[in-house]
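Backbone-to-sequence.
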């Protein structure tokens, strides 16, 4: 997996993430309990290079699926981060919220509202009464330019949980400065999938 770059990292949680890129993924592909079989058949996994477009395909499609840490927090959202080279050869990035828990709706500015927090700072705990145990989506790049080199990677974000400062205050009675954050949102990051234009 390391040689193939088919890997992802987390900030501590043991969530599971699969990420595939291709040209023909559909929402039907997610309905199977084994989406990875379809992922390998119709595309490439994280760390791979997108193959040549199939006939009639206008933009790449990405299938992403995540499961919560079995003893950890629920999931808040999945984002796809796209990077590309502009006409000056400079890297630009755009973050897309592709699927999320709850019935939130992006605002007029396109930003998704926060999921809310169940963290009890004084007891350094939280509840999984918000969020989702699994999230998945098929996302097609709405801003695809076939002439631009690009990369895409996934960021999976959990619901808020106590930060280490909250645990220190609760377990050891440590004095924590008032400006110290007491909550965090653990996350996972995948290796990117790369797109290279034809010469």
């Amino acid at each position: 997996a390391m040689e193939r770059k088919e890997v992802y990292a987390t900030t501590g949680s043991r969530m599971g993430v699969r990420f595939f890129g291709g040209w023909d993924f559909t929402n039907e592909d997610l309905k199977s309990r084994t989406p990875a079989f379809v992922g390998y058949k119709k595309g490439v996994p994280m760390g791979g290079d997108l193959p040549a477009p199939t006939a009639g395909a206008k933009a790449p499609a990405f299938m992403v699926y995540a499961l919560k840490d079995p003893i950890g927090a629920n999931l808040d959202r999945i984002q796809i981060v796209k990077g590309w080279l502009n006409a000056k050869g400079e890297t630009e990035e755009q973050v897309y919220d592709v699927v999320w828990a709850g019935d939130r709706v992006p605002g007029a500015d396109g930003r998704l509202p926060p999921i809310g927090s169940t963290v009890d700072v004084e007891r350094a705990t939280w509840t999984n009464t918000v969020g989702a145990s699994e999230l998945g989506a098929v996302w097609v790049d709405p801003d695809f330019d076939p002439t631009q080199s690009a990369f895409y990677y996934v960021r999976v974000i959990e619901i808020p949980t106590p930060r280490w400062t909250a645990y220190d205050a609760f377990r050891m009675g440590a004095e924590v400065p008032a400006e110290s954050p007491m909550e965090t949102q653990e996350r996972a990051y995948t290796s990117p999938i790369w797109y290279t234009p034809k010469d």
